[in-house]
Amino acid sequence: MYMKNWIIALSICIIGLGCKEDAKKAPAKKTTVQIPAFSGDQAYTMIEKQLEFGYRVPGTPEHKACGEWIIETMEGLGAKVYQQDFTSNFLGKTNVPSFNIMAQFNPERSKRILLGAHWDSRLIADKDDERKTDPIPGADDGGSGVAVLLEIARLISENPIDMGVDMIFFDAEDQGTNDDKTGQSWAQGAQYWGANKIPKNYKADYGILLDMVGSEGAVFGREEYSYQNAKKYQDKVWTLAQRMGYSDFFREETSGGVMDDHYWVMKNGGIPMIDIINQQPGDRSSFGSYHHTHDDDIDIISKRTLRVVGQVVTAVLYQESIGNI
Known about the structure:
- 31% of the residues lie in helices and 22% in strands.
- By secondary structure, it is an alpha/beta fold.
- The protein has one domain (40-321): Zn peptidases (Aminopeptidase), CATH 3.40.630.10.
């Protein structure tokens, strides 16, 4: 059951080439893009649904059931869906069945934006003081990004957009080791997809990754790899977010570089991609006190944080569809 979809009308002035400033001329024509309102309540429900499956650790029945639900949900919203199977090795486990999920709206369009999130949850609670070898719920670290993508998918299905939008749910992202300096034990699904893109020869103008975008008190600085390699796209998102009144979330300070999915999409896949990720000010390695602990559960999720991030990304998409960003 979904909330009523209120529509925000945004008027944009489109000025033709060769126009000069002249008070005597007729005013410029206006066009309107309708930006659907993102529901933080609905995204919250999508996190609860993921948690109902249990721990989404690759190779487990709970993981497989959640993946099947994501596929069914996206197909039900009218997306063309691909499942990309691969095997991952992590934390003493080898050849673990894993799979990325790629969903496309308007697959025939050449102009495309890629949105991403990881859908697995971590096998161990290595930052906790207790039960360190037990899996974590992953409400924010995994669950929140997936929830935002699912709600945006619903909005697109009900409010057609005039360009291609793709959503990729990466697997085996959160199973790395903290002493890995290469980053290759993390984001294995993104590494695989970047080197073996589906659909074949896939291209996008740029991408936006959503990672840990739902907690109370979350802040999003300008992640360093995004800033170095995709700054003009990061500028688009941050400028629009601040114009929308969300400068308390989208901060101007540069935060630490994170070798998560967006890094490997750029490195292996050649697509510029920015990262919207919660990193606490003053600590370049901190993702919040709940990170990789059993506290990463529904209690730390904020509907307002989900709504703000979701509304900004939704606005980016619909603005891009008319070339106004």
